[in-house]
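On clarity, I found the account of how folds are encoded harder to follow than it need be. What matters is that the chain and its backbone geometry are given together, residue for residue. I therefore recommend that a typical entry be quoted early in the introduction. An entry of this sort, consisting of the sequence and the corresponding backbone structure tokens, reads as follows:
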Amino acid sequence: MPQHIGFIMDGNGRWAKKRAMPRNFGHKQGASVFKKTINWCREFGVRAATFYAFSTENWKRPEDEVKGIMNLLRQYIKDIRAMAKENVRFVFIGDLSAFEDDIRVELLDIMDTSKENNEFIAGVALNYGGRAEIANCARKLAEKCVSGELEPEDITEELIENVLYTREFPPLDLVIRPSGEQRLSNFLIWQAAYAEFVFMDVLWPDFKKKDLEHAIKEFAGRSRRFGGV
């Protein structure tokens, strides 16, 4: 059983287009699948899941689509708070400073009030990019070198992992990407070094419990050697 699964929630816009609906209608449907997927993961015994919700590149999308996603996030904060009351810890990974004050304050408060919850960790990647995360780690370690707290030769993989957004998560075991695309798209690129990948043709709003079960079975059937024999 994978202990930490990453989900690239892809295909919302195409799902809506197939139904002659605005792209934001697809994002709304995708948000409802997010909540269900957390419950399915908990049911299967997964300890943590990280969801790619909004990347650093997504700001380039049409203005009305970005505004729609932000308003959807505002609406969904209530549901996130309700899930946090079920012993779910929420960690929002990425640069939250880019969000408007009302959103940022809510996200920080949810992280603070749920930090003692220990049944399940739900990571939500917002304004996130894997390269940006690694650059952020490099800056933090460079500052410690400048201050004399650390010598450059003392920097190890373990030190880097201790400043990642996911430092309190179990190691990433599995990445699931619906929509038919077969790439990471700058998602958890450090953490995914030895993760298994399952790509699916189903669009994210159509993602079902059976699809998650299929991915977990696929994971269970693989041989993970981590560079060994």
